[in-house]
Amino acid sequence: MGVEVVVEGLTKSFGRQNIWRDVTLTLPPGEVSVLLGPSGTGKSVFLKSVIGLLRPERGRCLVDGTDVVTCGEHQLYETRKLFGVLFQDGALFGSMNLYDNVAFPLREHTKKSETEIRRIVLEKLEMTGLAGAEKKLPGEISGGMRKRAGLARALVLDPQIILCDEPDSGLDPVRTAYLSQLLIDLNAQIDATILIVTHNINVARTVPDNIGMLFRKELVMFGPREVLLSSEEPVVEQFLNGRRLGPIGMSEEKDQAQIAEEQAHADAGHHDGSTEDVRGIVPQLQPTPGLPERAGVRRRMDRVMRILHTLPQTAQRGIIESMSEADRAFYGVGAPAGRHGRDGNRVTGTLPLSEWRG
């Protein structure tokens, strides 16, 4: 299973420019998480800080117990072996075919024989849907195939954590859907911890177990998808609906006067140019039939049910309504509080069926 990443009070600046401050979150092991935020909020900087490519000024980032902010170079080198990284452009070597691109980390960081390398490379190419394309050069294939090749290369050292920096950038909606399915399928097969940085609303709503959002140089929220998708936090609701109406502006956050003016226009019936309202807890993407169930889904649901009674009533109703009948029965929704989840932890505060249906 993937390892846990614990971030505590992380602060990063470049000179006098503060990028974000006091970021605290936990990436649960074996679950898929997404980090959202308007352009320029430092999402990619956060990825580089997690892997130790950038050193924040304050705070801790514990990767399997090792603080990558303060550890020495040798320990950082060893910790980085836990990671696989998919960069925005795939970061493939243009003069190498796909086979040699994917084999590169194995040749650089291991002493495996070419026979063993070939077995691993072909396995990862098949896993990412690139079987038979190993002799092609990056310039001869589509952007979607380059992304998948970059992902195959990220997988060859069997990472426990996979970081994806805007994997959907430059892809059309169809290729983005295929890549999203691929990430879910990989998680089902290897149970790795995955963190995706994206602007894509559909990816954010359908792929992850957990969602976080950076805004105004701070982490606004981070938690299970059910909590964020049912949140009434203005900036989260605005971003997940792709609306102009809300705190996020074109270049920076809006002042209260501008927000009030836009709200008045909206109340008067002026359309703000956004797409159809898509709020609510939509179904999560499932692994391709024939693959194992994702263990992270049950771990997340156990966590959601433990905190359900702390959420606003509207959020509680939305979460329960989004659950399958089997999950409602399993967690005792409609039964007296105090039922135990599959992990043995006590589930409290569930709503009676008569209340949420009413």
UniProtKB/TrEMBL annotation:
Keywords: ATP-binding, Nucleotide-binding, Transport. This is ABC transporter ATP-binding protein. Residues 252-293, 338-358 are annotated as: Disordered. One of its GO terms (molecular function) is ATP binding. Residues 252-279 have a biased composition (Basic and acidic residues). Residues 5-241 form the ABC transporter domain.
